[in-house]
Structure formats: C-alpha cells, structure tokens
Amino acid sequence: MRIYNTLTAKKEEFVPVRPGEVSMYSCGITAYDFCHIGHARSAIVFDVMRRYIRYKGYTITYIRNFTDIDDKIINRGHQEGLAWDAVAKKYIDEYYRDMDMLGVGRADVEPRATDYIGEMIEIVQGLIDKGHAYVSDGSVYFEVGSFRGYGKLSKRDLEDMMAGARIEVNERKKNPMDFALWKASKEGEPAWESPWGPGRPGWHIECSAMSLKHLGETFDIHGGGADLIFPHHENEIAQSEAFTGKPFVKYWVHNGFITVDKEKMSKSLGNFFTIREILHKFDAEAVRFFLLSTHYRSPIEFSDEQLKEAEVSIDRYYTTVLRARDFLALDQSVEKKSVDEQALSDILDSFIVRFREAMDDDFNTALAIGGIFELIRILNKYLDGKPLGVRSAELVTRAEALLREAGDVLNIFARTPEEWYKALMAVKKISLTEPDILSRIEARRQARENKEWAAADGIRKDLDALGIVLEDKKDSTTWKVKV
RNA sequence: GGCGACGUACCCAAGUGGCUAAGGGGGAGGUCUGCAAAACCUUUAUGCAGCGGUUCAAAUCCGCUCGUCGCCUCCA
After folding, report:
1. CA/C1' separation A381–B40 (Å)
2. CB within 8 A of A188, min separation 6: which ones?
3. Which 384-443 residues of chain A approach strand B with CB closer than 7 Å?
4. pLDDT digits (tens, 9 = 90+) for A401-454
5. Topology of domain A2-277, CATH
6. What CATH architecture applies to the domain A304-419?
7. Does residue A299 reach within 7 angstroms of strand B, measured from its CB?
C-alpha cells in the first residue's frame, strides 16, 4: 500500500510503526456550527481509509477529536445565549446526526479537548522546562525559533514567513510566529487552573496531548483538510517533537478542498453548503458517492449537476442488482450458455485484484469505482445473453458478492434496490404512495390487455410526470423513481 | 512578494515513460419493445493548455509561456 505523505511530498510504501497495527488520528471539528460539505469530505475520506486499512487485515486504532473549547465556541454561546459547553454539546450532537446519515463510522476514541486539560498542562510545562516555551502575562507561547524543524511540513522557512506582512503584532510574543500553548482567560471566560494562572488551552496543543495519550509518541497516520497543514499541523509537529524528542507522525495525509465556482468553499467567503441542506435535496449515498468519485487530494467542484450524476450512477448500480436478483429467481434447471460467459468470468477473476491495486495506490477510490462500473457493464451484457442454469447462477452470484465486497469498503451500495427507491421517493418528494402506483399499474395492465394503447400510454405519461417510470417485463410491470 | 497544486473529449474524471488514453453523464445512430423504460452495441480525444527539449519511446520527465486555483490569517 502506498500513501502520499505531505511531509515528504511523495507517495511512500506504507509500513506501520508496529507490524500489523495501524494508529491513525484525524482532526475533527470545532463544535460551534453545523457541518458543511467540506467537513463531510474529510470525514468520509478518513472513514474510507480506515475501512480499507481494516479490510487489508491490519488492526487499526482510529482517533478523531472534538475541539470543544475555543474562541468561536465562546462567541457562538454569546450569540445563541448558551453556555460554551452547551454550544459544544449541541453541535457535537448535530455532527453525529450528519455523519450517521453519511455512513461515517464512529472513531475508536473520540476525545474532547476539555477532558485532557491535565495532559495538556503537563506538556506545556515540559516544553517550558526544555526551553521551548515561555510564560508571558499568564499565557504560554511556543518559541518557534527553538525548534529546528519548524516549517518542514508546510515547506516554508521562518525567515520567509517573518518577511510576510500579514502577521498580527502581539507584544506578549518574542517572535510574531510564536503560537499560544495556553491562553490566559479574560474576565468571565471559561478557565481552568494552571501553574500560570487561570486560562484555557491553545488550539494546537489538544491534538498533541490526545494523540500522545492514545497512540503514543510516534504514530502512523495523521490527517485532516489541506488547510490544516499550516499552521495547525506544523505547530503540532513542533510541540510534540520538542516535547518527546521523537518523530511525531510517519505519514501526513491531507484531503483537498471542495470548491464552488472554482473557489474554495469556506466560512469566510460564505459560499458553503451545510450537509443538512444538501441532504434535503439529495440522498446521503449520492453525496458519499460524489465525494469518493474524485481522488481525495484533488479539488472537487460542488454543484447540483454533480450530485445528480452521482444519483444516476447509483441508480444504475441498483438497477443492475435488481436485474441480477430477478435472474437468480428464475428456474435454473435448464442449461443455456450466454455468449459472453468468458468475458464475465475473466473480469470476475481480476476484479478484486484491480480493486485492491486501485485502493493500494493512495486510496484511489475514483479508479476503484471505475472498476465497479466496468463489472456492471459486463454483467449486464452477460444477462442480455439470456443465460440459464447452475453455472450462470454461480457466475452472477459471484459477481454480486464481489460488488458487495468492494461496496463495503467504500460503504456505498449497501442497500436493497427497494430501499434505494424508497429513499429517492422521499428525497424527491414524490407525492404518490406505493398503493397509488400499483393501482395505476393495474389499470394500465387492463388497458393493455384490451389493446387500448392510448389509455395505457396515458397512464405511463401521467406517472412519468410525477417522477415514476414504468418498466414492462415479460409478465409484470415494475416501477422505479425517475432520476 | 514567498511557496505549492492543477490544466485529459460537450461535462465530470482515472491514467505520471512503452499494449487500442479507465469509468460515469450528455449527444447521435442502432438492437430489443405494441409504444416505452432498462440493458446492450456503434459513435463522440491519431490526441492529453501552448511551444520547445530529453528519450528508441512522453499526457506522463525537463524548460519556458498562457490560464486556473490554493496556502502564507480562523478554516475540513
């Protein structure tokens, strides 16, 4: 397995610190608002990495934190008239609601910053003792110049950064690039006791403290959105390595941004869409599929058209599953070979190998999905040949199992076609109920029996206008939601 | 200003030295069907922003140009 490492700017062979065991940490959210689709991308990307690593046979410990104390949370509390901890609790609950919908699993440990104040104080004190941090006015700052590797992740050097004019002046700091490990609290702000007086932790220190506690001094994978590379992850490296004297992380992975009109989706630009509002228009599986249909490091342009295409793709998948299921329900006592048997048999033999090759190559989900649809096409072609018999049932069963295996890793395609259509009816707000549809199908059946084609076609047209398409089969008519 | 990424068909998107440049969507034509839908077939990039170079061989490596975007400030 090869992983692109931001630290070395190369794809590297993945070798965990401890053989067979993987430790992974990804930066979660600051709980002060509803999550947007960018948060979803990050969460889904790391969810898939975790699933695939597990699928490969490693045991994995996955940590994803919540930042539950921070300026933004405090401010939000003032706006909403809530205590800071009530704000954090509220948005953590909302986070879970969104992530559950998107099929993002819980991490093995989901630590909250405020549960680790003691550990953070210990590290901050250690950094002071080692001469990497200093106290100033009740706050503690990390002295960036004392850590020789500063800038190695984001590929910049201190000199250049200091030349930049966009750094705020703060008399408490020795150097404008120094960052807060511990912030003295102002009157009325949440505060914890510390050797330097009442205060609260800086943002970066929590990840160092929580990963150290749960994963040890050096662990395998640390990830987050690309916007965390600087300063957040750069600062984490400085703190952690200055404190332990050991390498902090082996592989740094960062997901790309979501763009809107080619511009990065961000809070400050206001061009973001919350997960919630998207799920109002599209099924969660379509959202997940959309986010996995592009490689995780590439930017991905968000639009309704893209989501719609994802929906169409998923529909194609479930339509094929339904077709395979209908086929397997047939009486297979007569043997009839499909002309395309060899093609199907061949792709079944190579499918999982190619799926794993794609995923092994820096989690190339886009390529993996391409392989899935290649199999879908060949399976459909095979079924077009109207085969019959034990041998063909075996092939189709195997195809289904392979598709399910790949889908499980990505956590897509896990539903039945019926569940999919039901979900589509809900999200497309189709006013008809299933009995309505079935009674119209029955009316049409009678019309067709009497060769009243105009009446029959009228019923089909009406249903189509309401978002339902009919499919006439040998001796029945089925319906599905139009995508 | 410093650092970096990207530019593949009508759209989305894999591919980073060597078989006919994956896959999806859309368009056109066809098979099937009472008509449809679905599915399948053919077709839609002798070419991968442009120009040079390296090589027996380049979308893939190097250089330049143009364009787009990101980080350098909270940000997934």
Report:
1. 6
2. none
3. 384
4. 999 999 999 999 999 999 999 999 999 999 999 999 999 999 999 999 999 999
5. Rossmann fold (3.40.50)
6. Up-down Bundle (1.20)
7. yes
